[in-house]
Amino acid sequence: MHTDDLANERTFLAYLRTALAFVAFGFVIARFSLFMREFSLIAHESAGSTHVSTIFGVSMAAFGVIVGGYGTLRYMAVSRSIREKNTAPMPDAAAILGGVAVAVIGAVVAGALLAVK
Q1: What are the backbone angles phi and psi of residue 86, rounded to the nearest 5°?
Q2: In the prediction, which pLDDT does 46 show?
Q3: How many other CB atoms are there within 10 angstroms of residue 27's CB atom?
Q4: What is the CA radius of gyration of the chain?
Q5: What is the dihedral of CA 47, 51, 54, 56, to 10 degrees?
Q6: DSSP-derived secondary structure letter, 45
Q7: For 9-54, what is each residue's pLDDT tens digit?
Q8: What's this model's pTM, rounded to 2 decimal places?
Q9: Hey, which of 5, 43, 66, 81 would disulfide with 86, CB 3.0 to 4.6 Å?
């Protein structure tokens, strides 16, 4: 096996790890609303709206699925280009979209942390 093939496989596994992390993070965020509801019952206080964390958690999990699918497509494209002795650079739009998505996720998480009293 060629070193380029091995590097392509490592990159593919990194995409899968990242996708799994987004799915797991989304699950934790979605379940956090359940924890807050239960905690508010014990403390006899109003939990406020927990609907946002459920929506955000589901969105994070869906983004993880998209990352996994994109990683699979990239793996296949790079593998094909290695066989053809060609190059397959990542499209600029994919890089921009990925950067913007991570920035938005970071901003939402930071905003939610700042809103905690």
Answers
A1: -130, 180
A2: 61
A3: 15
A4: 19
A5: -110
A6: S
A7: 999 999 999 999 999 999 988 887 777 667 667 766 665 556 778 8
A8: 0.77
A9: 81
